[in-house]
Design brief:
The chain has 149 residues and is mainly α. The chain has helices at residues 2-25, 30-56, 58-80, 88-112, 115-118, 137-148. It is rod-shaped.
Length: 149
């Protein structure tokens, strides 16, 4: 269920960016934009979030997601949209806006899918502290001797 929630968040972000840029500037078909958003979400989630994020961390995954978003939007835009449209500049712009949101999605994914969370230990970043009165060893010894007398 957590994977579906993460995919849904990622899809909404990508769909808003793709619909905004390609829909307004190129007056593209909504069904084609839906397929572009869906495929970019799948590619980015599988490669960027499930593989690169777990192995290399947030910064590397964000940079990789920029490249993945740019290349996939560019290629899918050329495939689904009318030929002759210059999609490279719009793909760069879309990848930039998607990349601005990716670190937040990565933090959500790391919090949800960390090893501690899977084992039932919650977030893994919360620490519990025990407070006690510090006592000197000689003081304890002297109290014990007084009780024994």
């Amino acid at each position: 269920m957590d994977h579906l929630k993460a995919l849904g968040i990622k899809f909404v972000v990508i769909a808003v960016v793709v619909y905004s840029l390609f829909g307004i500037l190129y007056n593209a078909n909504l069904m084609n934009l839906f397929w572009i958003s869906l495929l970019v979400t799948g590619i980015s989630y599988l490669i960027g979030d499930l593989f690169i994020l777990r192995k290399f961390g947030n910064i590397t995954a964000t940079i990789a997601d920029f490249g993945l978003a740019f290349v996939s939007i560019w290629l899918l835009g050329d495939l689904f949209l009318a030929e002759g449209m210059p999609t490279i500049l719009l793909s760069l712009t879309a990848a930039f806006f998607i990349t601005c949101v990716e670190p937040f999605i990565h933090v959500y994914i790391q919090n949800r899918f960390s090893d501690d969370h899977q084992k039932g230990f919650g977030n893994g970043n919360r620490l519990q502290t025990e407070f006690a009165k510090e006592m000197d060893a000689q003081m304890i010894k002297s109290k014990k001797e007084r009780k024994d007398k």
